[in-house]
Automatic annotation (TrEMBL):
Xref: Pfam families: AIRS (PF00586), AIRS_C (PF02769), ThiN (PF10120)
Name of this chain's protein: Uncharacterized protein
InterPro entries reported for this sequence: Aldolase_II/adducin_N_sf, HypE, PurM-like_C_dom, PurM-like_C_sf, PurM-like_N, PurM-like_N_sf, ThiN
GO biological process: protein maturation
Record organism: Infirmifilum uzonense
Length: 464
């Protein structure tokens, strides 16, 4: 099942029977007021209150309304402490004070069935002016940069202020050169453009040859699909005037797209999209990896690995794992791995557990020995040394080395100790040891890409 927003198309008829007119971002409460409700989940506890406020307040602001009143529900598993609940409420209240929003009620509780804390906020805002519908020929501008949220999910240190569109929305709502605003969320810029397209019934064509992107967003990811909370889309019929407004207000803006005509979809790179493109970064919404690059990279790599076609054939009986060491690591506690491994099931490979430090003594010892030979070899993955995989690795230049039997708990660690420079090492037919292959590299995501390349065209490989 796909994570993230669920379309309300099937619910619209039911909602309309009770008088709800579903709008983009926030719904009308009266002629002068709008209301929005949003959950904050999958972020570290210390940021939960911040995002619970900004997700909803920003939806109100992009509807050209000033946030005025709020409620907050904080729910957690039975293990949630009073101090943790208090931390969430305190940070939410701090944002209310900063933006002069009155907190009028809420609920805090612990319940079975909740995996980790979540916060749901409702905010009512007073409308400053009405939105205007877009027209063919209108230009769509990107306000801000792409990928700050993605970089944060990947463990980079990004100020929270760079991951909210609220300040820019409050600035731009005052200017009539802006016909409408829409915030960018986990679906990325492409997802936000599609939401505009479907709501207003226009095809939108991306025209920008390049876009301002956070320097820490990996080049492997398409910027238009990267989670980008903090950016906005602004629609205008007066592009030069909008650019002048943005200059005067100190707001970064980039011409992004044009509204073409009636229909639905976003034209991007000569292809018409009707649904957002998936990205493995969506898996990084959780309370434990943002802000820690090693934890985030292991989870991302594991998520990408289990999506490789037929990968379950190469998962050992004891399970596979991916490990990544901090730079300068000297102890097994400095190495991240999955605390439950990747296992085979009747439905393919599955991730058990979550990344944590000190979770794989075996791979940690291999990495620590590898880094003594080469400090950049901080990542490792173990798989089953099937002939087709070994042949694929050889084809892409890794040349797997079969290590000899030695009186050691781990023959691969021993081979590295003896000075082996191989990046892929394996053993089989050793007493009391399941055959194992370990691939080494500087980055777990790159290791998974090597595995994917090695297994590409697997059918043709097996025929030769």
């Amino acid at each position: 099942m796909k994570l993230g927003k669920v379309s309300i198309d099937n619910l619209r008829r039911i909602l309309e029977t009770v008088g709800l007119r579903a709008e983009l971002d926030a719904n009308p409460l009266s002629e002068e007021e709008v209301v929005s409700t949003n959950p904050a989940i999958g972020v570290p506890l210390k940021t939960l209150g911040f995002f619970a406020f900004h997700y909803t307040a920003s939806n109100v602001a992009v509807a050209f309304a000033k946030p005025m009143y709020a409620t907050l529900n904080v729910l957690g598993p039975p293990s949630t402490t009073d101090e943790e609940m208090e931390e969430v409420v305190k940070s939410f209240v701090a944002e209310c004070r900063k933006y002069q929003v009155e907190l009028r009620g809420g609920h805090t509780a612990r319940y079975e069935g909740i995996e980790y804390p979540l916060a749901v906020s409702t905010i009512i805002g007073k409308r400053v002016r009405p939105r205007l519908n877009p027209s063919p020929g209108d230009k769509v501008y990107l306000i801000g940069t792409i990928g700050a949220e993605s970089a944060w999910l990947l463990g980079k240190s990004i100020p929270l202020e760079e991951m909210t569109p609220l300040p820019n929305a409050l600035k731009l709502m005052r200017f009539e050169q802006v016909k409408l605003l829409h915030d960018v969320s986990e679906g990325g810029v492409l997802g936000a453009l599609l939401e505009l397209s479907k709501h207003y019934g226009f095809i939108i064509k991306v025209t920008a040859p390049s876009m301002p992107t956070n320097k820490d967003l990996p080049r492997d990811f398409d910027p238009l699909t990267a989670p980008t909370y903090g950016a906005l889309l602004a629609v205008t019929s007066s592009p030069q005037e909008l650019e002048a407004v943005c200059r005067d207000e100190g707001v970064q803006c980039t011409s992004l797209a044009v509204i073409v005509g009636k229909g639905e979809g976003v034209e991007y790179k000569s292809k018409l999209y009707s649904e957002p493109l998936s990205t493995p970064l969506i898996e990084l919404y959780n309370p434990y990896t943002p802000g820690d690059p090693e934890l985030a990279q292991v989870l991302l790599a594991a998520t990408m690995l289990i999506k490789i076609k037929d990968i379950e054939r190469f998962i050992p009986e004891v399970g596979a794992n991916i490990a990544y060491a901090r730079r300068g690591a000297s102890r097994t506690e400095d190495v991240v791995a999955l605390d439950g491994r990747i296992v085979r099931t009747s439905k393919g490979a599955r991730i058990c557990g979550k990344p944590s430090y000190g979770s794989s003594r075996h791979l940690a010892r291999v990495i620590l020995q590898a880094t003594r030979n080469n400090p950049d070899l901080r990542a490792a993955i173990n798989l089953k040394p099937e002939p087709v995989l070994l042949k694929g690795l050889e084809r892409i230049g890794l040349n797997p080395l079969e290590v000899k039997a030695v009186p050691s708990e781990c023959p691969i660690e021993q081979a590295l100790h003896e000075g082996s420079k191989a990046l892929a090492l394996y053993y089989r037919n050793l007493p009391n040891l399941e055959p194992s292959l370990v691939i080494l590299g500087d980055d777990p995501v790159k290791l998974v890409e090597l595995v994917r390349l090695a297994l590409s065209n697997i059918g043709a490989q097996e025929k030769t």
